[in-house]
Amino acid sequence: MWVAAALVIVLVVFGIVKLAGGGGDDPEPTADPTTTEPTEDPTSDEPTEDPTSDEPTDDGPAGPTDELALGDSATLDENWEVTVQEPNMDATQQVVDDGAVEPQDGNKYVMVYVTATNTSDQEMEAYPNIVMGYVNSNGDQFDGSTEVAPDDMYAQPVVAPGDSATGTWLFEVSEDSEGGYWLIQSNVEGSSNPPIVSYVNP
User: Fold this and answer.
1) 3-class DSSP state for residue 81?
2) DSSP 94-161
3) In what helix (H) or strand (E) does residue 9 lie, and over which residues does it extend?
4) Which of 57, 60, 68, 162 is most enclosed, with most CB atoms within 10 A?
5) In terms of DSSP H, where are the helices of 79-137?
C-alpha cells in the first residue's frame, strides 16, 4: 500500500513541476538529451524533485492516472498512443560504449523503449511532445539524462499522422533503483489536460 501512496505523492510533484498544462517549450538541449536536465546538485545521488527549469502552467496533475503493465497500449490524448516496453535496468555499459559519459558514482543508467503512434492530423516529433519520468520502489523520482542513448527518441524523425516511432528514454538513477513506475504524458502545446499514465516496472 505504501508504494501506491508514494506514487500519488510523486504524481502530484510530477504533475505540478513537469507535466502540468501539457505544453510549453522545452529548453534547448546541450547534449541531445531525451529530456531536460535535472536541477539538483549533480554530485548527489538523490533524484531531483524539480526536473525542469520551466515554470509550471497548472496547479496539479491533469486528470486521473491509469496504471498499466509494460507492453500495454495507452492513449495519452488526441495526439499520441504509446506503448512502454520492458526496460534495461542495467544499461550503463551499453550506453557508455555508445558514447555517453560514465554515470556519477553510485548511479547507473537505465533505458526504456517506447513506441509512439501519432494519432493527430499533423506531423509531430515524439520528443519533446511526450515526456517521461521514473519513480523507483523507494519513491525517488528521476528525470531523463542529458546523455544520448542508443536509438534515443530525441534523434527519431518526425512522425506523420498514423505512423509510429520507436525510441529510447535514458535515465541516470541510483544504483539500488528497481521496481517502481514509469510515468508518461503528452506534452503537445494546446493539449487539454492530458492524463499522466503510469506503467508498473517489475
Assistant:
1) strand
2) HHHHTTPPPPPTTEEEEEEEEEEEE-SSS-B-HHHHEEEEEE-TT--EEPBPSSPPTTBGGGSPPB-T
3) helix 2-14
4) 68
5) 92-97, 126-129
Spatial CA neighbour of 31 closest among 145, 167, 192:
145
Q: How many other CB atoms are found less than 10 A from the CB of residue 4?
A: 9
Reduce the DSSP state of residue 19 to 3 states and report it. Answer: helix
Task: Copy the grid coordinates of residue 158.
Answer: 518526425
Closest among 154, 148, 111 to 131, alpha carbons compared:
154
Does this model's pTM top 0.85? My answer is no
Helix (H) or strand (E) holding 67: strand 66-69
pLDDT tens profile 28-74 = 444 544 444 444 444 444 444 443 333 333 333 333 455 899 999 99
Q: Are 14 and 196 in contact (CB under 8 A)?
A: yes
